[in-house]
Amino acid sequence: MHQLSDEILSFYRQTQESERLTNDIRGQIEFARTQEIITRYLPDPPAVVLDIGGGSGPYACWLAKAGYEVHLVDPVDLHVEQAKEASNQQSEHPIASISLGDARALRFSSASADAVLLLGPLYHLIDKTERLLALSEAYRVLRNGGVMVAAGISRFASLLSCFFDDGLNQSVYRNIVKRDLKTGYHRNPTDNLRYFTDAYLHRPETLGSEVVEAGFQHQATLAVQGPMWLFRSVENYWADPDQRAVVLDLIRKVEAEPSILGMSSHILAIGRK
Which residues face 30 on adjacent strands? Predict the structure, then answer.
């Protein structure tokens, strides 16, 4: 039976992932841009969407409201309970099913889904073989022509965050960054949750190559936030609807630009079966 490490499970049981996408500007940009990209590639409702590693259900709830048949799976018991509560809050458009499970062993039948979202699993699977197993499971459950959207964290995210957070004088932060850049394996050696938890940080081209290796036709690898999350001025722009539209348009213009793709803290790879 597959299970995430105790470190990862403990991290998510102690943090409020349910609030991450709404609490601050970074999360809000991530949510808006991920929604935009998903909308671009998903078939029309009422298609069947599997939200694997769907957390507390922000994307599942949004898609259910849009008319999709959404099935959420997550390995963290707290997230499953939060997703059920969120689904109950929109009783006219509930999530079709919510269950505890792992991306590497899906309970769904082969060729039963029109789309699969892997917006969290890949960066918590340190070994490539485990990531390929999750991608292969997504491939298995998809119908021919189905789409898969997989998220990765950029190899350079902790380096950029270190400067954004003014963390250069913290030896722990520096050591984490050095390890991330060298190996891609992000590890928090402390009890301080601000340093995240065990994760694999992808180079953009590597995320795309893993999607291909799992059998998918690679459609695109796109920046979610682009470089915009690094500039505090964006917070002021984001508060104004007209300026927010300009921010999103500018991110969109450079979302596939190879020379700055790694500056986005999150990247999405889209594959088609």
Answer: none
Q: What is the pLDDT of residues 49-62, one digit of tens each?
A: 999 999 999 999 99
Give whole-number Cα distances, 151 to 70, 97, 172, in Å. 18, 22, 26
Measuring CA to CA, which residue among 182, 180, 183, 149 is closest to residue 167? Answer: 180
pLDDT tens-digit profile of 114-148? 999 999 999 999 999 999 999 999 999 999 999 99
Strands (E), the chain: 48-52, 69-74, 97-100, 113-118, 142-154, 185-186, 199-202, 217-223, 266-272
Residue from 204, 194, 209 nearest 271 by CA: 209
- Claim: this prediction has a pTM higher than 0.90: yes
The DSSP letter of residue 43 is P
Instruction: State whether residue 176 is helix, strand or coil.
Output: helix
